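Tokens as discussed.
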């Protein structure tokens, strides 16, 4: 089994330090941990009786790693999925919550498996993922990564303020797209021309 702590540490490194971007619906974050997450978990890190941006700023890397493992890997039962999906689904769960599972479930439904798209990893979702992995482990991992990339594109299509996460100021691939593609085989990465064609309608 892969080292889940190492995967969590990589996620924390990708997320970076304290950011409070008004265009980010998640609001203030540090190491990817949002104010909303701290409030849901009752984590008053400054021990002042309030959970606010000061608590976000106080999140350490070690605390973020522990939080991710307990609440974004163990609690949603990602370990029940085939091992090669762990890094990408875990990373996406940190980034998008239960939508990470819904993306996988929709993919499995498209592949012909019968299961509910409910964002929860139960026996049917885990079983379908394992069956699909037996047909093609790398293919399933790549298909999930492509579906994840498409999820980001759809958000940016609907919400212009989010386009800066999918496309840089210079017009190249943004963090969302690079993040999704880091988990798939290079042959499925969009070329510069393909990327530009995909985002051309954004102006």
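Sequence:
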């Amino acid at each position: 089994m892969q080292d889940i702590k190492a995967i969590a540490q990589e996620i924390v490194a990708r997320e970076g330090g304290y950011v409070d971007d008004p265009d980010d619906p998640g609001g203030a974050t540090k190491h990817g941990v949002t104010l909303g997450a701290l409030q849901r978990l009752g984590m008053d890190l400054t021990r002042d009786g309030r959970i606010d941006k000061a608590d976000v700023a106080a999140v350490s890397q070690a605390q973020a790693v522990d939080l991710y493992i307990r609440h974004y890997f163990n609690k949603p039962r990602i370990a029940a999925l085939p091992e090669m999906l762990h890094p990408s689904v875990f990373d996406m769960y940190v980034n998008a919550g239960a939508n990470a599972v819904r993306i996988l479930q929709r993919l499995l439904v498209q592949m012909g498996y019968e299961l509910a798209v409910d964002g929860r990893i139960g026996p049917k979702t885990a079983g379908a993922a394992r069956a699909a992995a037996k047909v093609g482990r790398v293919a399933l991992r790549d298909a999930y990564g492509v579906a994840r990339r498409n999820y980001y594109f759809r958000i940016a299509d609907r919400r212009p303020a989010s386009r800066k996460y999918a496309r840089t100021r210079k017009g190249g691939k943004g963090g969302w797209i690079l993040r999704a593609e880091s988990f798939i085989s290079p042959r499925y990465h969009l070329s510069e021309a393909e990327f530009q064609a995909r985002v051309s309608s954004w102006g």
